[in-house]
Amino acid sequence: MRMRHKHRKSSALCCSAGSRWSLSAVVWSLVGCILIIHFYSLVHHQEEGEAQVRLSHFPLTKELEEIEEENFQIQPRGKRSPRAAKRRGGKRPSLIDEFLDDSSQIRLLFFPDHKTAIGPTKAAANESGYFYPGRLWLDTEGNPIQAHGGGIMYDQRTETYYWYGENKEGLTYQAHKKGAARVDIIGVNCYSSKDLWSWYNEGIVLLGEESNVTHDLHKSNVLERPKVIYNDQTDKYVMWMHIDDENYTKASVGVAISDSATGPFEYLYSKRPHGFDSRDMSIFKDDDGKAYLIYSSEDNSELHISLLTNDYLDVTRMMRRILVGQHREAPAIFKHQGTYYMITSGCTGWAPNEALAHAAESIMGPWETMGNPCIGGNKIFRATTFFSQSTFVVPLRGMPDSFIFMADRWNPAELRDSRYVWLPLTVGGAADEPLEYNFGFPLWSRVSIYWHKRWKLPDGWQRA
Ligand code: GAL
């Protein structure tokens, strides 16, 4: 009893001292918290201010400050596409399943119809010059632009931009039950423009082959991702492209040449560069006139980069394996203030996936992966490269920090109706994701691709 009493007494004492102590602890903790919050908000505001200063530094983002939110209304379960649900074995289909399902009720969100087409023949005065990623895009004659998996070359002599890409006008079908959706080769289309918005159709500059089944360009084969560069020494325009058979087992690159940007291009040959399989590819011409081929290899598990010969018609023996084991494709290289950058996609066929940005001091590597460059929209938009796949990054003359990111929003049910997603890309500020080799502070500038439902280049940007 005594013990218990003593205990109770002491515990009572302890308790009252404790409560006094804990009261002051609470008060001091509160003061501490307020101070920390105050300090944090000070720093944060300062950072925000800096970020704004940094961002407003770019002429493009000044015009594009508003990052829009695209609110996809996910429909109640019953209303979602039965076909997409079937593909998921009865499980609730994801937005990507809906995207891939041509009978989906939300299809128009991804592939808006003719009513909202853009282009010089269609745009109202207040819409002229505006890019609407994903909308049908018409040329100067009012026809939908057919230049998929494309790339753009600026021709100094004519001060004109040329857009080369796959003409996918044909019927979409599967060569085999489990084969990828395809269209027959028609050829490579070329469009010209002074402002990157209104495009004149220069026609098919490299024609597919109708009858000779042994020809690389026979319609039953695959011609993808054509890119053109100009060779100052030979005064020729050189086109590189992915050449394959219908099963994607040939896995080669093809080369064509022309005296003029608008063709006709003469097809020269195809090969497996350095004896390796080569699928998605691109070429890059550096400031010093050297040009490079970059291609997905070893079953798309890595990329290879190789210096081209001086005439750009072949690869040299100088080749490096990069991003080994990372399974990337759809490479798009560009250069900013002496650093090389590249955007790639994952390997999921026509289905969209997350983009990654990479950087290197030397084009031959090592290349480091920086993370997903997509900003704005919503989470699913950022995780699917805005439902599209990279194909090229266009430098803008007179705007050294700004680029246009060109991507394809593939429509595997109707490949000819695949759309173009062009968005502003800027380089600047510290990268905000940890690098793979580097546990310290990221060394590279951040690459940002901003989602916009509608955007425009600043007026008179060509004269900047
Ligand atoms: C993608 C590739 C496209 C096309 C497609 C066929 O991975 O980027 O260019 O080849 O596969 O399924």
UniProtKB/TrEMBL annotation:
<keyword id="KW-0326">Glycosidase</keyword>
<dbReference type="GO" id="GO:0005975">
    <property type="term" value="P:carbohydrate metabolic process"/>
</dbReference>
<feature type="region of interest" description="Disordered">
    <location>
        <begin position="71"/>
        <end position="90"/>
    </location>
</feature>
<dbReference type="InterPro" id="IPR006710">
    <property type="entry name" value="Glyco_hydro_43"/>
</dbReference>
<keyword id="KW-0472">Membrane</keyword>
<dbReference type="Pfam" id="PF04616">
    <property type="entry name" value="Glyco_hydro_43"/>
</dbReference>
<comment type="similarity">
    <text>Belongs to the glycosyl hydrolase 43 family.</text>
</comment>
<keyword id="KW-0812">Transmembrane</keyword>
<protein>
    <submittedName>
        <fullName>Glycoside hydrolase</fullName>
    </submittedName>
</protein>
<dbReference type="InterPro" id="IPR023296">
    <property type="entry name" value="Glyco_hydro_beta-prop_sf"/>
</dbReference>
<dbReference type="GO" id="GO:0004553">
    <property type="term" value="F:hydrolase activity, hydrolyzing O-glycosyl compounds"/>
</dbReference>
<feature type="compositionally biased region" description="Basic residues">
    <location>
        <begin position="77"/>
        <end position="90"/>
    </location>
</feature>
<keyword id="KW-0378">Hydrolase</keyword>
<keyword id="KW-1133">Transmembrane helix</keyword>
<feature type="transmembrane region" description="Helical">
    <location>
        <begin position="21"/>
        <end position="43"/>
    </location>
</feature>
